[in-house]
Design brief:
Blueprint lengths: L2 E5 L2 E4 L4 E8 L8 E6 L6 E6 L6 E3 L7 E6 L4 E6 L8 E7 L16 E2 L3 E6 L1
Parallel strand pairs: 2-11
Antiparallel strand pairs: 1-3, 3-8, 4-5, 4-9, 5-6, 7-8, 9-10, 9-11
């Protein structure tokens, strides 16, 4: 059974940084692309960033380009989201996700993801 556990959320002032981690278990982590999504109160879940199985390819939502970096360390079965220059509008619950299928490129569509973590709250104060 695949399990994803996020950590690293918290309260930070605008302009600050946080690093989220997602620890995966239950299958061979290095075979699969991974993604980060977020959901703010009253809004739908939205794509943030994705990384290929090797870490060699990444893809970002326009609103985080240049501020967030997704990476992975396959030896530790962990994917990261480094968030810099945080803005109040980044406030949301952040989720990591993994697909059942093997993709060779980063995956953007939420419908492609089958496994989700419980989420970690990120709050950015102005």
């Amino acid at each position: 059974q695949v399990q994803l556990v996020e950590s690293g959320g918290g309260l930070v002032q605008a302009g600050g940084s946080l690093r989220l981690s997602c620890a995966a278990s239950g299958r061979t982590f290095s075979n699969y692309a991974m993604g980060w999504f977020r959901q703010a109160p009253g809004k739908e879940r939205e794509f943030v960033a994705a990384v290929s199985w090797s870490g060699g390819s990444t893809y970002y939502a326009d609103f985080v380009k240049g501020r967030f970096t997704i990476s992975r360390y396959n030896a530790k079965n962990t994917v990261y989201l480094q968030m810099n220059s945080l803005k109040p509008e980044d406030t949301a619950v952040y989720y990591c996700a993994a697909p059942k299928k093997i993709y060779t490129v980063p995956v953007v569509a939420p419908s492609a993801y089958d496994y989700w973590g419980q989420g970690t709250q990120v709050t950015v104060s102005s």
